[in-house]
Amino acid sequence: MVEYIHTYENVLWWLAVASIITFVSTLIVVPKLVVRIPSDYFSHRERNRMPYSDHHPVVQGILLIGKNALGYVFIVVGIVMLVLPGQGLLTIVIGIMLLNFPGKYRLERWLVIRRPVLRTINWLRRRSNRNPLVLD
Predict the structure, then answer these.
(1) DSSP 115
(2) Where are the domains of the chain?
(3) Side-chain half-sphere of 14: how many Cα atoms within 13 Å?
(4) Count of CB atoms within 10 A of residue 5's CB?
(5) 3-state class of 53 per DSSP?
(6) CA gap 136, 125 in Å, rounded
(7) pLDDT for 56-79, tens place per residue?
(8) How far apart are CA 89 and CA 63, in angstroms?
(9) pTM score, two decimals?
(10) Contact, 12 vs 5, CB < 8 A?
């Protein structure tokens, strides 16, 4: 094991730096994203239209492919972070939220209606002077 560490010391240092950057980034980015969610987003049984649905179909396709590719990257990096230092589970969840798949809105809604999750989200929103999320 010690030989392995010495052999890949540079790679392990870069992974540690990437883990620290990811951790600090999530501490900054996640609260900013949570407060941007419209307060009535989860009050509907079905998902609202996508923000870029008015664009040209080619632009929609490029944005969709880019968003899904980024989601897969986050999932892979999150899986790697499960065994290395970093926020593996949080990174995987962010990756899943970026993907498009059937039932995604139901999954998001299911997560948000959990009392601890909703309480944390609404606490972050209160700190930013935003209205709490409204559920039906």
Answers:
(1) H
(2) 2-42+55-127
(3) 4
(4) 9
(5) coil
(6) 18
(7) 888 888 988 998 998 898 888 878
(8) 25
(9) 0.64
(10) yes
